[in-house]
Amino acid sequence: MEDCIFCKIINGDIPSYKVYEDDDVLAFLDITQVTPGHTLLVPKKHVADIFEYDADLATKVFAKLPELARAIKAINSDIKGLNIVNNNGQIAYQSVFHSHIHLIPRYTSEDDIS
Ligand code: 5GP
Ligand code: ZN
């Protein structure tokens, strides 16, 4: 979709640090790292939010979470947990209206908790 920043990232028009890619999804580092390794998982098909998913797309996207979570955790033995966050709608703090799921690693140090 025109003027969608995440569609531009998917198309390669805007650079990103890719974490994972297949036919249906792209995962890349968030430009604002809540903690190191903060990753966004997005469907390649433009949907604004959870309200626009059908079951097939939901399976293609959300079913990737366990493997992606394990892959992120495996990168650094200091990662002890992971928040998975999905904001839907401006009232729910969504700021980019191409659906995305945050994966936010949590470390041993309390300094990383935010
Ligand atoms: P939301 O608030 O919609 O749940 O999260 C949007 C996220 O997209 C934010 O964490 C923000 O840092 C991230 N973001 C916004 N623009 C870009 C960009 O151009 N590149 C990357 N990698 N992340 C972005
Ligand atoms: Zn888009």
Automatic annotation (TrEMBL):
Residues 5-114 form the HIT domain. A motif (Histidine triad motif) lies at residues 98-102. It comes from the Bacteria. This is Protein hit. The chain holds residues 1 to 114 of 142 of the full protein.
